Amino acid sequence: MAKVLRLIPTAAMGGAFLLALVTQVSALTGKQGASIAPHRAVYEITLEHSTPGSGVAEMTGRMVYEMSGSSCKGYEQKMRFVTRMTNQEGIAQINDLRTSSFEDLETHHLRFSSSQYENQKLSEAAQGSAGPSNGATFTKVELTKPSKKTVKLPSDIYFPIQHSLALLEAAHSGKTIFTANLYDGSDKGEKFYETNAVIGKPRNASVEKRTPRRNFGGKLDGLTAWPVAISYFEPGPVRTDQLPTYELSFLFYENGISSDLFIDYGDFSIRGELKELTLLKKGKCRPGKR
Asked: Among 249, 257, 250, which residue's Cα sits nearest to residue 220?
């Protein structure tokens, strides 16, 4: 039973899952006073549904996500995603995914590291860096784990924070569709995904008050939020009948926090309920720097 769960710490997560950013939105959208909050979020993971052939009968877990940094010094993301899955025969497996990354928006470089454990034994690891090639004709990935290797990706690749910022800008601009090639160092660091995001209508404070939610000390009160659904596709020729590898949906608040996570892997799906939320201190920049 080797089910490996992926969450893009993007858009949303980045993510989603998969799903937080830190910057001044005014620099991108012209909206003054809207800022994004560094934070630590804890999500409770539960199984939504599974098919008989999925090998998943029960699942519980927790995901802890933390974002810190600033646009001038770079952004750091950390995530730990632990689940206990039981198959139809009653055999349980503990999956423990640990990821960290550092993204420099000014130079468009990404450093990343991830480790996947199954029943406390390391089953997969990836580590490396990515950025523009000389002449920026392609994106160059230099891997050190699982082995030393150089990978070439398209030049129009989005890294997680950059993708989240672009998604937020699209939402503020009233766009309903946003497509992008996305790379976060997952899948042994050799793969990127073609993504298609659908952005719903913004929900204002009056709408949110009709839906009971945890208060979190008022941290989410009165904030605009957008329902977002992102489909992740294997790169290649576009086909009308092509199905996504998986789909991620969430409620994306204007302060960069995500709730109501839903991830559909095809033969099973899970939900992530925001249980704990802590706002962190913002990174400081020199005068004149965002």
From this structure: 257
Name 271's Cβ contacts closer than 8 Å, sequence gap at least 6: 45, 46, 48, 261, 262, 263
> pLDDT tens, 31-90?
333 346 789 999 999 999 999 889 999 999 999 999 998 777 888 999 999 999 999 999
Q: Among the residues of 120-230, which ranges form H helices?
A: 160-172, 205-209
CA 4 – CA 62 distance, rounded (Å): 15
Q: Cβ-count burial of 122 within 10 angstroms (0-12 exposed, 13-18 middle, 19+ buried)?
A: exposed
Check residue 73 and give its pLDDT: 81
Q: What is the pTM of this model?
A: 0.85
Cα-Cα-Cα-Cα dihedral sign, residues 290, 162, 167, 259: negative
Tell me how far apart the alpha carbons of residues 268 and 202 are, in angstroms, rounded to a whole number.
Answer: 29
Helix (H, G, I), strand (E, B) or coil at 201: coil
Q: Which structure tokens are listed for 278?
A: 């802590």
Amino acid making up residue 218: G
Alpha helices in 138-281 (DSSP H): 160-172, 205-209
Q: Is 261 exposed, middle or buried (0-12, 13-18, 19+ CB in 10 A)?
A: buried
Give the span between the Cα atoms of 246 and 228, in whole angstroms.
14
**Residue 34 token pair:** 């809207």
Torsion of CA 61, 250, 235, 140, to 10 degrees: -80
Q: Which residues contact 262 (CB under 8 A, 6 or more apart)?
A: 48, 248, 249, 250, 269, 270, 271, 272
The domain locations on the chain are: 26-279
CB 77 within 8 A of CB 266: no
Least Cα distance to 12 among 241, 278, 248, 266 occurs for 248
**Which residue positions in the chain have pLDDT lower than 50?**
2, 4, 7-35, 206, 208-212
